[in-house]
Structure formats: structure tokens, C-alpha cells
Amino acid sequence: MGSTLEVVGAEVTANQFTTDDLTVIIGVSGGLEGNVLYGFSEDSVQAIVSVMVGEPIRSINDELALSAIGEIGNMITGNAAACLAQLGYTCNISLLVAGSLVSYHRSWSNSPAP
User: Fold this and answer.
1) What pLDDT does 18 receive?
2) CATH superfamily to which 22-109 belongs
């Protein structure tokens, strides 16, 4: 996408939320269970999604923005799940994107091919 993303922190937590403007929550079940949370500021969401769709977005709470930022979380977690599957940990992932005014949910399996 021509931009550099910087990881500003990672931690194990019992909370199911972040203090950011938008949180992508990926539920993991199967060989490993829990949730992966990605917190984004409004500015970050607007910048990332604008690059992904090729034009500025008006709101981080519209369906296109939520779908795009959810897909970022899905790609990162899906890649990790594929690596874990190679180690024998078959994982299913389920996506929930939560902003201050929205809830968006999509679920699918990310199991390795037989």
C-alpha cells in the first residue's frame, strides 16, 4: 500500500476492549482459544481505509470503512492462524469490529486444507 505501519505495543490482557476509537476483535477457537484485539485511532482508520479504497472516507462508522479495517485484522490474524496450523494448532477465527456507534460481525473458518 506504500505506507509503513508501526506496531506501538502488544500485551496480554483480560479486557475485551481497547480505549481506541475503533477496535477489531478476532475470536479464535479450536486448537487455541481467546480473542485478538487491534485498536485504531480514528485518524489511523481514515488513513488506512482511504489507501485501501483509493479515496477519502467520510466516517469510520460506515460499512465500507468497517469492512476494510476488519479485513486488515482478518489478514493479520489469518496469517498467524495459517502459521499455527502448520505447527498442528488448527484455529477458527471470527471477526467483530466495534466502534463507538457500531457493531459489525462476520465469522469463518481458517483451517488448513487436508
Assistant:
1) 67
2) CheC-like (3.40.1550.10)
112 DSSP assignment: P
Q: What are the average pLDDT values for consecutive 10-residue runs of the chain, which has 114 residues? A: 66 69 86 86 89 87 84 89 90 69 42 43
pTM of the model: 0.70
Which SS3 state, helix, strand or coil, does residue 36 take?
Answer: strand
The CA distance from 22 to 69, in Å, is 9
pLDDT at 58: 83
Cα–Cα distance, 9 to 11 (Å, whole number): 7
Q: Roughly how many angstroms between the first and final C-alpha of the chain, as a whole number?
A: 33
Q: Following DSSP, what letter does each residue of 45-107 receive, concatenated? A: HHHHHHHHHTS--S-TTSHHHHHHHHHHHHHHHHHHHHHHHHTT--EEEEEEEEESS-EEEEE
Query: How far is 17 from 10, CA to CA, in rounded Å?
Result: 14
> Domain residue spans in the chain?
22-109
